[in-house]
Amino acid sequence: MNTKVRTFELTMWPHMRAAYNLARWLVRNDHDAEDIVQESFLKAYKAQESFRGSEPKTWMLSIVRNTAMDFLRRVKSSSPVTLDDPEIEPQDHSPNPERALLEQSRRDQVRQAISQLAPEFREAIVLREIEGLSYKEIASVLNIPMGTVMSRLARARSQLLVELGGSTKEVQHDLP
Amino acid sequence: MTCREAGPLLHARLDNELDMAGSANIDLHLADCRVCAAQYAAIQSLHEEIAAADLSYAPGIALQRRLETRFLHEKRAPFRFPTINWLSSSVLAAAAIAAVALLVSIPMLRIGSGTDSISAEILDNHLRALQAVHQVDVPSSDQHAVKPWFQGKTSFSPPVPDLSDNDFILIGGRLEVIHQQPAAAIVYRRRQHVIDLYVSPSAGADSDPQLRELGGYHLLHWMQNNMSYWAVSDVDPTDLRKFAELIRGK
Predict the structure, then answer these.
(1) If you average pLDDT over residues A87-109, what whole number do you get?
(2) Is the overall model pTM greater than 0.80, yes or no?
(3) How far apart are CA B160 and CA B147, in angstroms?
(4) What is the CATH number of domain A94-176?
(5) How far apart are CA A115 and CA A102, in angstroms?
(6) Which chain A residues are closer than 8 Å to B22 by Cβ?
(7) Model confidence at A168, in pLDDT bands (50, 70, 90)?
(8) Where does the pLDDT of residue A59 fall: very low under 50, low under 70, confident under 90, or very high at 90 and above?
(9) Is B67 touching A (CB cutoff 8 A)?
(10) Which residue out of A8, A30, A34 would a mutagenesis test of the B interface target, given it has the greatest number of B Cβ atoms within 10 Å?
(11) B230 near B198, Cβ under 8 Å?
């Protein structure tokens, strides 16, 4: 068997779900997210000889992130207005429809609030809160210092709290 | 520790990124400062709320299959139809049932397998070209360079229309052999998706494009003026149909 294919299958394949999740959060629609993932896997496949030492997952995610950011820059420069796909959620079949509806709408609110964050805050939140990456891993994916990861998460969470009405007293710590 | 110092560190504390001494320092401050304690409780409940909401997006099965076909392809080349394996294994497994199945299915299979084996061969060829360094023998976005290139190499003249107004960009052409027949492969690009259009002479009545799906890829086949056309790509099937209509001049 071709060792290049085998290595690729073992190291990169397991991260397809995380790759797609990050791409989907960054570009905010299914179709473009699929294109981003496909392009990223192609880049990873071609560049795998240069992959040394770092974690396969963070390496893959950093390729996805850069590909998605390039895409967003292209879209932004070609059309000033971007239309997001409406978020369609499957209906919940809980016994209590009223409560289910409330929970559903709250879940949508959380999703919407994250989705509205600026990309540099959104990616930090997605990698930390949804993918469960450590600061070190996030720093590696985003190619920023760990201190910046911490301050971006702080900014992102403050914005989310304001948006979701979870904080009655917004504390002014004058963050950098 | 002041509130200003504690601010960002509350997040590091929540995310388990502090060592024991650092955590203890924050905890001391939280015990003293009601404002920071409230802020910490707020980010903690936000953290729990996002986790509970399960906001992860999962890739669709079509994307997974497409990536498998594309990247794990070399492992199991040439592309095989599952129906062929199914047939041979059922022959081995249950001769009696298979005998009946064979009687019923052979005439249908023969008709089906003609275009099916061409589909597989076309997809194989497309995937090999995608992996090759040179996807085209004549790289040009100029239809007036690509079309003459085929003259003298083929007994027929494939259509090479300029479809750039419709966002199908001509990349070039190459010569292929499909089913022991010389075929012109004209290569277009739509965003980062490559579309190969295979054209070869074949006697038969004109037919409308037929869509089939193989390994997450889509193929469109139609007949026009005694020429056989195959378009293959991982582009959205709607876009592939649009491409076919443009090629057909509809």
Answers:
(1) 64
(2) no
(3) 6
(4) 1.10.10.10
(5) 20
(6) none
(7) very low
(8) very high
(9) yes
(10) A34
(11) yes
Nearest to B228 by CA among B190, B199, B248, B208: B199
Could you count the other beta carbons within 10 Å of the beta carbon of residue B72? Answer: 15
The residue with greater pLDDT, B137 or B13, is: B13
**Is B61's Cβ below 8 Å from some Cβ in A?**
no
Q: Is A164 helix (H, G, I), strand (E, B) or coil?
A: helix
A20–B3: do the CB atoms touch at under 8 Å?
no
Tokens of A162: 């304001």
- Complete domains list, chain B, with CATH: 3-53 (no CATH), 62-247 (3.30.200.100)
Most confident of A98-107, A140-149, B138-147: A140-149
pLDDT of residue B145: 86
Q: Which CATH number fits domain A1-79: 2.40.110.10, 1.10.1740.10, 1.10.510.10, 3.30.420.10?
A: 1.10.1740.10
The alpha carbon of residue A123 is apart from the nearest alpha carbon of chain B, in Å, by 13
Residue appearing with tokens 């895409």: A71
Q: How many CB pairs under 8 A join A and B?
A: 120
CB contact under 8 A, B59 and A130: no
Q: What is the pLDDT of residues B153-180, one digit of tens each?
A: 888 889 999 999 999 999 999 999 888 8
